[in-house]
Amino acid sequence: MGEFITPNHLFFVRDHFVDRPVLSDDEWRLYLTGVGVEDRTVSLAHLRSLPSKSLTVTLECAGNGGYGRGADRQQHHMRSMVGTAVWRGVPVATLFKKEIPPEVTEFVFRGYDGGEDPDEPVSIDCYTRSIPRVKALDDDTLLVYEMNGEPLPQEHGFPVRLMVPGWYGMDSVKWIRSIEARSERVGHFYDDHRYRAQSTDAGLHAGRRVREMAVKSLVLHPSNGQRILLGDIPISGFAWAGENHVTGVDISFDGGQRWQPTELGDEVRPYSWRPWSLTYQADEVGPLDFVVRAVDSEGRSQPMDALPARTYEANWVQRVRVFVVAGLEP
With contact defined as beta carbons under 8 Å apart, do 196 and 210 qualify? Predict the structure, then answer.
């Protein structure tokens, strides 16, 4: 990790069930149904024949950097569940040919994957997410079949997955099976009991739905605990802000009392992370602590402190400690 585009084989993988669907190009079908929709199926060949577009999108797991459940509650998850790829596909709106009546308020996206969940007494037929109409029919919400110029890998949803740019990864349903237009809300396990802002003792969630990605930064170099020689220390990483743009990344070497700006990469792309860098002059040996904080185009910035038991949207600043030494052992 460290390249602007994350190679497919290094891109994080997050599944909800033990078994992944195995589908061929020929047998995959997408079923369209719902209010105002003429029920029909779409083949992969037909989908590929429609006008497509490419988007460079940073995708992050909603639990990236948060706290686990149960015995893992006091341990942070890895911060590596984020990556950026070039996705090619067809806008969801293209498939409906503007036939959706005004009473439709949401779209229900279902995958071919299903299985068991420890908090649900019956087997779950399929992974399901509901997306509000305005986001589902946005021109940038895609049914993607390519990732970085290659067919979508099986672990990333082959042959087709949903891509909801700027929102956390759980809404980008993999192995997409059906899309249903609805005029009223219907409950689904992964809408009602997962990806909510508040956790419960039972492991389920309550409160508002987790959707839009928070502003966040990641330090890639140097790594926490690394031994570094006296002199110039290059510090770099990425920052992202979902549907907004990163406008600044600051670094502090005194616990947040004073901040100095880093240099941002010139290119600004919607939905994509932005590189940042700074060179620090280390003139004495010993531990060196620093924190990095990103700010977005809406004026949002990362909080300094972690929120207890926050399972999702963990966007507090990353704290790094390195050790400056006079020489490195061979």
Answer: yes
- Nearest to residue 305, comparing CAs of 319, 294, 295, 322? 319
The per-residue pLDDT string of the chain (330 residues; one tens digit each, 9 = 90 and over) reads 568 999 999 999 999 999 999 999 999 999 999 999 999 999 999 999 999 999 999 999 999 987 654 434 334 455 689 999 999 999 999 999 778 999 999 999 999 999 998 888 889 999 999 999 999 999 999 999 999 999 999 999 999 999 999 999 999 999 999 999 999 988 888 888 888 887 666 556 677 889 999 999 999 999 999 999 999 999 999 999 999 999 999 999 999 999 999 999 987 889 999 999 999 999 999 999 999 999 999 999 999 988 766 678 899 999 999 999 987 775
Shared domain check, 182 and 134? yes
266 and 190 in one domain? Answer: no
Owner of token pair 């790094």: 320
Domain containing residue 270: CATH number: 2.60.40.650
Domain assignment of residue 308, given as a range: 216-325
- Cα–Cα dist 297/294, whole Å: 10
Q: Distance between CA 88 and CA 53 in Å, rounded? A: 6
Assign residue 70 a region (left: φ > 0; alpha: ψ between -120 and 50; beta: otherwise).
Answer: left
The conformational region for residue 202 under phi > 0 = left, psi -120 to 50 = alpha, else beta, is: alpha
Whether this model's pTM surpasses 0.90? yes
Amino acid in the structure at residue 85: A
Q: How many domains does the chain have?
A: 2
